[in-house]
What we know:
The complex is a heterodimer of chains A (468) and B (309).
Chain A: H1 15-23, H2 28-34, H3 41-51, H4 54-62, H5 74-78, H6 87-100, H7 107-119, H8 137-150, H9 156-168, H10 176-190, E1 208-211, H11 215-219, H12 222-234, E2 238-239, H13 250-254, H14 257-274, E3 278-281, H15 285-298, E4 310-311, H16 313-322, E5 338-340, H17 344-347, H18 353-363, H19 395-412, E6 416-418, H20 422-435, E7 440-442, H21 444-451, H22 461-465
Parallel strand pairs in A: 1-2, 1-3, 3-4, 5-6, 6-7
Chain B: E1 4-8, H1 16-29, E2 32-38, E3 40-42, E4 49-52, E5 58-60, H2 63-76, H3 78-81, E6 88-92, H4 96-107, E7 111-115, H5 134-141, E8 146-149, E9 162-167, H6 171-187, E10 190-198, H7 210-228, E11 238-245, H8 247-257, E12 262-265, H9 282-289, E13 294-296
Parallel strand pairs in B: 1-2, 1-7, 2-6, 7-8, 9-10, 9-12, 10-11, 12-13
Antiparallel strand pairs in B: 3-4, 4-5, 8-13
Helix pairs in contact in B: 4-5, 8-9
The complex binds iron/sulfur cluster (3 copies).
Amino acid sequence: MPEGIFCNKRPINTEEELKALLSDTRGTKYYEEMLSLEVDREKLWATIQKTCKSRTQTWLDVCARCGLCADSCFLYLVNDCKPEQVPSYKIQSTLGEMVRRKGDVDNEFMRHAMEVAWSQCTCCNRCAMYCPHGIDMGVMMGYTRGLLYSQGFVPWELKIGAGMHRVYRAQMDVTTEDWVETCVWMEEEQQDDWPGLEIPVDKEDADIMYTCNAREPKHYPEDLAEAAILFHIAGENWTVPSEGWEQTSLSMFAGDWEACKLQVENVYAAIDRLKPKRVIGTECGHAHRATVIEGPYWAGRPDGQPPAPYIHYVQWVAEALRTGKLKIDPAKRIKQTVTYQDSCNYIRNWGLAETAREILSYLVEPGYLVEMTPNKEHNYCCGGGGGFNGIGKFRPQRNKALLTKRDQILATGAKLVIAPCHNCWDAIRDLEEEYHIHIDWSFLKPLLIKMVIVPDHLKPQEEAGDEE
Amino acid sequence: MFEKILFATTGSPGCDSAARVAFDMARQYGSKLTLFHVLGIPGKGDSNVVIDIRSGEEVDVDAEYIEGVAEELRTTYAKQLEGLSGVELEVAVGVPSREVLRIARAKDVDMIVLCGPAEGQEAGFYKRGVVGDTLRKVAKAARCPVLTVSRPSASFWGGFSNIVFATDFSKASESAFQFAKTVAQAVDGELHLFNCVDLSRFQSAIALTQDGIEAKLAEARRRLHHEYALQLGDFKRFTSEVWEGTPYVEIVKFARERQADLIVLAHHARDVDPDERPFGSTLEQVIVRASCPVVSVNRPDKLPQAAEA
Ligand code: SF4
Ligand code: SF4
Ligand code: SF4
């Protein structure tokens, strides 16, 4: 069978196709069909010739197989230092083979490569910091995923995820109407507590355009409300676009480059349309990578930059605290042992380690922050990055991968983990559920709202004038 | 009086008492009833697996599973559904409080009926901050009255005649009062205006002198009279009473003493921070302890109109 009904080389482009694939519970038929999915060898080789950049070629060639990268990979460590988990082995046995064999690989090889690409590497880019040649497996694995995707060898959930972006321009089925309705809803819901609070949609020339992660309107709309509250307290002139509000990219995890481009162009179009002075994304780490770090290249922007300055949420928070737009009540600072989860995607890939520490210096009473070891740029992936969190087929491997983070957290003795990245947050939630280490975890927004000093004029009348 | 009622249920025995009230009300007022079940929260990162709210098990949410759940609800409530027309059955995936609020808003309902805190919802992370606070979040944010029934009640909607309205004199309590008044008038019942001077809120010893307390009691009596009793006009079947102590304890005691069959109160914002009130808000405590249904009303938006009753 060259192609299956569910498992094939065609991307999902319509709602019907998406629903059909979703109805195949756990991808049972999908994976069955994958067993006999034909590899289009010619196309694979043609694609490699066309897209395998000289950097990747060089990396593959210069890798000395010295294994110095081995210890840098948390998946190698957590999997009893199996040689198959050495970063260079992972890439040489997949991409390296494809290139050496000029695309002449079979179904079994592709399925194996899929397993390596999505369950043995979270594209966390940590190994790149330790290789003497600066070889970055995360980047190469990302590229390999693209090749696998184009041949239909991609985990079921991520084929769906990429399809969501293609159909809805969001990782979940949140339509423009759903989104705008959620903004109105949250605005209404907050108005008793925050008189005058607005969630302005499509306001032109605002100082800030805010973008988020589709799981917020879908399941956790209070996340949006919290962003609104903090902008409100800080007195920001801000807006959200009615279209182009979704900043994440499961298509990046899937290796669906075309969908990545469609997705990010949608956000950039909103920037062009509303002309904000700058754009601020939510706390999500991979959203920042997709829209700010890699996005400009997908969209073919000549300067390698988004159309307006685009910063991560921790940058805005640090700035707001520094300039006094947000003031923390010293009495409410955290006085319990707390640790911080550095998200690879904006710490390693965007250099925000110190910015995050600056925020912590406002929020945590001195002496109560216990850093993980290692931390900052050297921190390990949460264990669920790169799409790992969402793939049912690789759940056992993912759960094992969570052990690194579990042990890092346990060693700090902290009962609270501040985890701004949504994906890290999910991983930590899951590790608590899996291993019961009795911790709490939190985004920045709720913590800030608890600790911030609310100016009198923003308080509801009744509260302000209440007795006691 | 209530055109559209939303009954959020898990279909478990813990919801039986609430179900009786919800169905009785729908019958009594010819309301359009929506049965709503939230399957559970999407678990495990962003996968399609959901942790079922009742079993705590992982389930794959597909059309078949949803139909199965709907069928189960239909069977559970088969008796109550007899002769009721236009009952809608909705199933959703997500955080329960959010989904209840979302559908209440979408359907523009006049009343939300919730089951009280039931057993068997203790699994995993639900214990902390997911199921436990459904009630708190819905009661705080809903535009319409929220009725919670956690125990088999002596009498039900339509049959009751004794309403306790407990106030803390907040703005939200004003809406709760309007609700209590309308219902009491509509059923020609009795209305008991009640305030508890919250002694737990006074930190300083000076405020706790007997004179100080008595002054507070006198002031509260005055306010009950001016802010509520005077609004009752021709309606004479009311009493007014002020006690002191911890509000939820006194409210429950008072309701028992008056053999109330409905308690009406606001879910005041002062109560909401679960971290600072480890034993929950006044509302939650009243719900858990009261033997009758409890309605919380926070806003003037969707109050029943007496004329239509
Ligand atoms: S450290 Fe660098 S050169 Fe050595 S094996 Fe790893 S990737 Fe290859
Ligand atoms: S990118 Fe991260 S997960 Fe992948 S091989 Fe390198 S260290 Fe391991
Ligand atoms: S989820 Fe967080 S820690 Fe894990 S790879 Fe992504 S950013 Fe890194």
